[in-house]
Each structure stands twice: as C-alpha cells, then as structure tokens.
C-alpha cells in the first residue's frame, strides 16, 4: 500500500521519516523558546528579499584606523557590498540607512559616487543624523528621506595631522570643499550658493562654523527630497523598481 502511495505522491512522507520530522519540529520550538528566554526576542524569519539594505553607521573610517571605542563604518567593507548588490540579479533595489557623524572626506565621497552610479533604484533614510560627509552620501540615492527627528550638520572641510605647506594646504582644502559642494548640489535641489552660506555661517555652532539643519528645513531647502521613515522609503523604492521594470518591458 505504501509503495502505491509513494508512486502516486512522490512527496509523501514515509512512516520511517515521520518521527524524525516530529523530533526536528520539537527541537525548533525548543530553540525558539530558549532564544526568547535568553535574549527576550524570537528569531526573525529569513525571507528572500529583492532589496539590499546598506548601513552607514557611526564614523566613516578612511585611510586611518579609528580608535576601538569608536563605532565606525569602514569604506573598504562598504564598497564591495555595493559592487555585489549591483552585480546580483536577484537584488532589484538598495535602501541606504544613515546615522553617521561623518568622517573621512575621500572615503565618504567614494561611497557616495559608488551609490550614485548604480544602475539599480536606490533610496536613503537619514535617521538620527547625517552629518558632515554623511550629507553627500544621503543625497547620492535616487530619492532621499529624512526622519522628523533627524538633523544634518553642514560645515567646512577640516584637516588633522602635520601641515607642511600652508598656502598649498589651503588650496587643496578649497578644491576638496568645491568637490563636496558640487556633488551635493548636483544630486539635490539645493544651490551651491545656499550650501556655501550654510557651510560658512557663524554663530550657530558653539565650537565650529557651519549650520545644523533640522529635518523640515532640509526638505524645504531641497537638500533632502521628503520627510518619512522606513515604510515611505520602501514604498518609493518599490515604485522605482516597478518603473524600471516598465522601461525594460517597453
């Protein structure tokens, strides 16, 4: 009888494997209970997604290794992830999560350029803060979002370490600053004049020149596209993905 059922239904479970399946299910439930008791949470179900989530958290680490006490995002870790997401046919869009104080200018610009030149739809969400070199990264996506409680600090480029030639160093800093300003203005709706005004403003920051821009003002001046959180960003990313699929169909 069992052989006949097996021929009719190849996926039918044999009497020998049924107890093993029951034991496996029982162990799975026990492991979930242990996780809940020890960590206060259950395991998140692993669902296959067509969206890649990239996080820029803490300080952006460039050519110099930061202190172990600092929470950092290493650009040599981020760039291969971007390349992998671009090459993976199963990934149709990228959501970028930012909560950064800034960091290495060249490393930040490298990440921003990589994201801006992706062929796949991208959206960014600024949570908490997207300060300093985090601003170009935030605006590098197709659409940018900022949480209502988030802020963005815009200030001039600074230099640490030994300075040998002062005039040459100032000229180098000015050219680097122009690169940052041009990138931000070309990937957002804010003008270069407005950016320079915010960057060199005095009286707002206690120990620095520059401006701390709150979420609402960032949207009004065109620095960020919209106010919103994760649901708004994912809806927009899904719209961009469907729009891109429509282009391919045409």
From TrEMBL:
Keyword Transport assigned: no
MF GO annotations: peptidase activity
Domain of life: Bacteria
Alphabetical list of InterPro entries matching this protein: ClpP/crotonase-like_dom_sf (IPR029045), ClpP/TepA (IPR023562)
GO biological process: proteolysis
Key words, A-Z: Hydrolase, Protease
Protein name: ATP-dependent protease ClpP protease subunit
């Amino acid at each position: 009888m069992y052989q006949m059922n097996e021929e009719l239904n190849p996926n039918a479970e044999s009497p020998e494997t049924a107890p093993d399946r029951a034991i496996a299910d029982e162990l799975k439930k026990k492991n979930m209970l242990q996780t809940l008791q020890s960590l206060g949470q259950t395991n998140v179900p692993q669902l296959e997604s067509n969206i890649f989530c990239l996080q820029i958290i803490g300080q952006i680490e460039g050519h110099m290794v930061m202190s172990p006490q600092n929470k950092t995002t290493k650009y040599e870790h981020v760039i291969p992830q971007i390349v992998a997401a671009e090459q993976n046919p199963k990934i149709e869009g990228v959501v970028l999560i930012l909560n950064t104080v800034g960091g290495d200018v060249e490393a930040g610009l490298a990440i921003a350029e990589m994201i801006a030149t992706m062929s796949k739809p991208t959206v960014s969400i600024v949570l908490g803060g997207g300060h300093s070199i985090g601003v170009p990264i935030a605006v590098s996506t197709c659409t940018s979002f900022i949480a209502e409680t988030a802020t963005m600090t815009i200030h001039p480029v600074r230099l640490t370490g030994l300075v040998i030639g002062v005039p040459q160093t100032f000229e180098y800093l000015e050219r680097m600053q122009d690169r940052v300003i041009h990138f931000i203005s070309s990937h957002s709706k804010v003008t270069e004049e407005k950016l320079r005004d915010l960057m060199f403003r005095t009286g707002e920051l206690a120990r620095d020149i520059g401006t701390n821009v709150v979420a609402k003002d960032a949207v009004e001046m065109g620095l960020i596209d919209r106010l919103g959180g994760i649901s708004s960003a994912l809806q927009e990313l899904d719209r961009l993905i469907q729009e891109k699929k429509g282009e391919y169909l045409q």
